[in-house]
Amino acid sequence: MAYFRKLKTGNWSAQIDRAGVRTSQTFPTKAAAQAWATKTEAEILAKRRGQTVKRTLRQALERYRQDVSVKKRGKRWEEMRIGSYLGEFGLPFADKWLEDVTPDDFARWRDHRLKGLKSSSVARDFTLLSSVMSIARDEWGWLHASPLTKVKRPKQPPARTRLIHWTEIRAMLRALGWARKAPENLSQQAAHAFLVSLHTGMRAGEVLKAERRGTVATLETSKNGERETFPYQRGRSS
After folding, report:
1. How many CB atoms sit inside 10 A of residue 11's CB?
2. Class of domain 2-150 as given by CATH
3. pTM of the predicted protein model
4. Distance between CA 210 and CA 96 in Å, rounded?
């Protein structure tokens, strides 16, 4: 059963309580809320009967972008990536029914992508698409099995082991105008960030977000979602 309620903001809240499943969402109009409720109830009942809901790959990608990507720290990258899949030069089989998408579809697309992109980029595509297909199968009931489980992923390039030489560090600092004082321009700020990264192992984005407290640089939310601290050698970069 679906229930609709107009909020003080003017939006409409749709709530569903069907077959032991409770869910809700807010929409700008009542019509949008009703459309969502109708679709969601059909999915709940189909999943209960062990059936799949007939949806296209495009619909799966759009729903993933709207419902899943927005909750991630890397949402901007995922939203842009999914947008490229749905664009003119994206997935040529995006409008096929999910159940009709085959491993061969993805394999041909992989081989085409590898002609112009590095294998690491295509591997990231596969990670995102695998997540879309898994959620469509396990949570939405749109798919019985993911065709990507039968497609070979691109080989990852060997890990980089080269270390920057001290002469390269010195040349870069000179070019940026680094000095043992507070930076006075963007080049000197870049030099300080470069040194902090060398001393702590932080990525560029982490350096910008970190707070220095004495001899420790603190990052409230790191790439893995946790709080981290890094030893900071004050005398070398300030």
Report:
1. 15
2. mainly alpha
3. 0.61
4. 45
**HEC readout, 100-145:** HCCHHHHHHHHHHHHCCCCHHHHHHHHHHHHHHHHHHHHCCCCCCC
Please name the amino acid found at residue 186.
Answer: L
177: its two tokens = 């105008």
Per-residue model confidence as pLDDT tens digits over 159-191: 777 888 989 999 999 999 988 888 889 999 898
Phi, psi of 131 (to 5 degrees): -65, -40
Indicate the domain borders of the chain.
Answer: 2-150, 166-237
Cβ pair 206, 223 in contact under 8 A: yes
- 2 beta partners: 16
Q: Tell me how far CA of residue 76 lies from CA of 60, 69, 72, 81, 156, in angstroms.
A: 18, 8, 9, 9, 24
